[in-house]
Design a protein that fits this description.
Elements: H1 27-40, H2 44-59, E1 64-68, E2 71-74, E3 78-82, H3 89-138, H4 149-161, E4 171-172, H5 177-185, E5 190-195, H6 199-207, H7 215-222, E6 226-227, E7 237-238, E8 242-249, H8 251-259, H9 261-265, E9 272-275, H10 293-307, E10 321-323, H11 326-342, H12 351-354, H13 357-373, H14 384-407, H15 414-431, E11 440-441, H16 442-448, H17 456-468, E12 472-478, E13 485-491, H18 493-500
Parallel strand pairs: 1-10, 3-8, 3-9, 4-5, 5-8
Antiparallel strand pairs: 1-2, 6-7, 11-13, 12-13
Helix pairs in contact: 1-2, 1-10, 2-3, 2-10, 2-13, 3-4, 3-10, 11-14, 13-14, 15-17
């Protein structure tokens, strides 16, 4: 039996995946993406997807898209990008979100006098209520009319009528669900987590609590009402929480998150848009071009303008709904029918994720539309070209989602898992005999795997997978004892070559 064509065990790597369709972005975002990619020497994918997340947090909770009468989608995104420690994750996030931090700083400087005044008035009224209550409690019968309940109620009503002023906080990093709910309560029920560490998964998996709470992360994606019930105290209530996530994590963090049964079963991981950018490490240049000032200025203006959209500049909640024109509607219908035909076959292993794909495409379409028309977005119907661009971006995320879920071995068959186990054992045994690595008997392999396979027959599907993929072949050779021929395992020389070159197929 000869070798078949050598087939890598690894699922398609990022270098084989669809590149992000930069041309689908509005011109300002295109230029900024290319400029950052050149300046920081990072993948355009990493930048473009990060920018989508930033634009999303700017308009989340302000605009919604209504593809059909009975269907409304918010415009917040959950974005997850994988990158190794040396990929300059933090510089990218710092660059694309700098204008958000700058806006927050400027807005809080404007609010500071109002905030201080509010805090002073609040303390005065709270003190007044306390003093009146103490006087009423201590008053003798002869003094009972000196402090009436009406006085107390009047002060309490004055406190309730006091217009609350809070300091703006749009971005958080490592935060517990409980603390995040409090922040959202103080910021029009909106907040974004932007992080290059991926600590949110550790926190949700139980780093801070033996009873991890992901409810707000589930409700915050779709804007469903949320109530944090706590024994012994009144919980916080959010009517329409809107959460945006922009995370850059190492591949191992992603794999562990995808393998977490609670995350997967409750649909948390199905809410993310995944990007597995091709690495530029090893091919970066020192003398890169800086970001042109005019490009940075245009982007900063766009971000600040989107952040400033509220009732102060004439925008009203009634102008928050985006509608599709006829062409955009038909394109979305065609895309839905295409995906629906394939969902139980081609996309069976990620059916939970694909089931949300059309909604994700709608959100992306809304983000592209608002980026183009800004304050006047709701007065213009979303057109066919914008929907085409959103669908193109959606196809990118579909390809990367398939690779992301595959990277966690979620979609592997048992024979593929057995094949990887057997290949690892073969390498271990052959490393013990470096002078003649091909002198490995099949029965010796079985003896070393007895704890894994109950019978020799149980081992056969894994062997067949290795043979089919061209990793090994089985040969029969004359043994030392005349008349007996033993079966030996011979490893494809191409495998050894790929291993020496740094391939990870053996893992």
């Amino acid at each position: 039996m000869g070798f078949e064509d050598f087939e890598d065990f690894e699922k398609p790597g990022s270098e084989k995946l669809l590149p992000f369709p930069i041309e689908a972005l509005p011109p300002i975002l295109q230029e900024y993406t290319r400029a950052i990619s050149e300046s920081l020497q990072v993948s355009e994918d990493m930048v473009a997807v990060s920018i989508l997340g930033v634009v999303s947090l700017c308009i989340a909770g302000k605009f919604y898209i209504q593809p059909k009468t009975d269907w409304v989608e918010p415009l917040n995104l959950y974005v997850l990008i994988t990158a190794r420690p040396s990929e300059r994750k933090t510089p990218v996030l710092k660059e694309v979100s700098a204008s958000v931090y700058e806006y927050v700083k400027e807005e809080n400087e404007r609010r500071k006098p109002l905030y201080n005044k509010y805090q002073t008035q609040k303390k005065i009224l709270e003190s007044k209520i306390n003093n009146l209550t103490v006087k009423a409690t201590k008053a003798s019968k002869n003094e009972k009319n000196s402090v009436s309940m009406f006085d107390i109620f009047e002060a309490q009503q004055e406190l309730a009528d006091l217009e609350e002023i809070t300091m703006l906080k749009l971005l958080v990093d490592d935060i517990t669900p409980e603390a995040m709910v409090k922040v959202m309560k103080e910021n029009n029920e909106r907040v974004a987590i932007v992080s290059a560490e991926g600590g949110v998964f550790g926190m949700l998996a139980g780093r801070y609590s033996t009873q991890p709470n992901i409810d707000i992360f589930l409700k915050g994606y779709s804007g469903e009402p949320y109530c944090s019930d706590r024994i012994g105290r009144i919980g916080e209530t959010l009517d329409h929480p809107v959460l945006t996530l922009l995370l850059m994590v190492q591949p191992k963090v992603l794999q562990d998150a995808l393998k977490n049964p609670e995350f997967r079963e409750r649909g948390f991981m199905a809410r993310f848009l995944y990007s597995l950018p091709h690495s530029k490490v090893g091919n970066r240049v020192y003398d890169s071009k800086p970001i042109p000032n005019e490009v940075k200025v245009s982007y900063n203006q766009l971000i600040k303008e989107l952040l400033a959209i509220d009732s102060m500049n004439g925008w009203e909640p009634d102008n928050s709904i985006l509608y599709l024109n006829e062409e955009a509607y038909q394109l979305s219908k065609d895309f839905f029918e295409e995906i629906e035909r394939k969902i139980t076959e081609d996309y069976e292993e990620i059916e939970d994720w694909v089931g949300k794909l059309l909604g994700q495409v709608m959100r992306i379409a809304g983000i592209l539309h608002v980026s183009k028309y800004r304050l006047g977005a709701a007065t213009v119907l979303l057109d066919g070209q914008t929907m085409k661009d959103a669908i193109q971006i959606g196809r990118y995320f579909l390809a990367h989602a398939m690779a992301a879920f595959a990277s966690a071995d979620i979609t592997e068959t048992q024979s593929e898992k057995d094949a990887k186990y057997l290949m690892k054992k073969i390498i271990e045994l052959q490393d013990q005999n470096p002078q003649n690595p091909q002198n490995l008997k099949l029965r010796d392999l079985y003896q070393s795997c007895k704890g894994h396979f109950k019978t020799k027959e149980d081992m056969q599907p894994g062997l067949d997978e290795l043979i089919k993929r061209g990793f090994i072949r089985i040969t029969k050779q004359q043994s030392e004892k005349a008349g007996r021929r033993s079966e030996f395992i011979e490893v494809n020389p191409e495998y050894w070559k790929s291993r020496e070159e740094g391939s990870e197929i053996h893992e």
